[in-house]
Amino acid sequence: MHPLLRRAFLVLPLLAACSTTAVTPSQPVLEGVWQLTFWAPASTPHTADSVTGVLELRPATPVDSALLQHFPQMYPDKLVGRVRVDFTPILGRQVSCLSESSLPPTLSLAAPDSIVVGFTPGAADCGLWATGRIRGDVVNGAWLEPTFAGPGLGGRFRMVRTGAPPVGP
C-alpha cells in the first residue's frame, strides 16, 4: 500500500469520531443493504482474491444512543448497522475486533461524495475502517486493518447497494 494512503488511514478514526456531518435530502441517501467486497492485500498469502459480505445501514435510534453511551461523539447524525463478512480466505483469520458483539458499524460523510465506514468504532488499535467515493449505488475505495504498531493490512474496497433500508435495530 502506498505510504500516503497508510498515513491517511491513521487519521481516519479521528476524523470519523469528530465528524458531525448530517445526512440531509441534498446529500446521498446511504441507508439500505450493501454488498461489500474486500480485495486481498498483495503482501499476504491468501486462498481467494477477495471476500464479500453484507452491510445493513439505518439511521441511529434512541436505543442505539443508549447502547453507545460510552461513545456518543461517534454517532450524531450517522448511520449505524450490522456487518457480516469473513476475512479468513484473504487473511487466514478474521479481522481483529470484528465480531457480532462489537459496537455497530457507523458510516459518515467525509465530503459530499466520500464516506468513512467504521466497521469497529471505538477500537483504536485493531479493527476495520474503509473510505470511498460515492457514485450512485456504488462506493469504491480502500480498507485498512489498523494495528497498535502502525497502519497494518489493507486493500481495495467496494460497496454496491442491493436493497432497501432494513427495518428496526
Description:
The chain has helices spanning 3-18, 62-67, 88-91, and strands at residues 32-39, 50-59, 79-85, 106-111, 114-118, 129-135, 138-147, 150-163. It contains three helices and eight strands. A hairpin with a 2-residue loop joins strand 4 (106-111) and strand 5. It has one domain (3-163): Quinohemoprotein amine dehydrogenase alpha subunit, domain 2 (Lipocalin), CATH 2.40.128.120. The N and C termini lie far apart (36 Å). The longest helix is centred in the first third of the chain and has 16 residues, at 3-18. Mean pLDDT is 77; it is low at 14-25. Strands 1-2-3-4-5-6-7-8 form an eight-stranded antiparallel β-barrel. The radius of gyration is 15 Å and the shape is globular.
Brief digest:
This protein is an alpha+beta fold. The chain contains 3 helices and 8 strands, in the order αββαβαβββββ.
What does the secondary structure layout of this molecule look like, with pairings?
Elements: H1 3-18, E1 32-39, E2 50-59, H2 62-67, E3 79-85, H3 88-91, E4 106-111, E5 114-118, E6 129-135, E7 138-147, E8 150-163
Antiparallel strand pairs: 1-2, 1-8, 2-3, 3-4, 4-5, 5-6, 6-7, 7-8
CATH domain class name: Mainly Beta
Residue stretches low in confidence (pLDDT < 50, at least 5 long) are 14-25
Give the helix tally. 3
CATH superfamily: Quinohemoprotein amine dehydrogenase alpha subunit, domain 2
State the domain count: 1
As for the CATH topology, it is Lipocalin
Radius of gyration over alpha carbons?
Answer: 15 Å
- The N- to C-terminal Cα distance equals 36 Å
Mean pLDDT: 77
Q: Tell me roughly what share of residues is in helical segments.
A: 10-25%
User: What is the H/E order?
Assistant: HEEHEHEEEEE
The largest β sheet comes out as: 8 strands, antiparallel, barrel
Structural class designation? alpha+beta
Oligomeric form of this entry? single chain
The coarse silhouette is globular
**Beta fraction:** 35-45%
What is the count of β-strands? 8
CATH architecture: Beta Barrel
Write out the strand line-up for the largest beta sheet, numbering strands in chain order.
Answer: 1-2-3-4-5-6-7-8
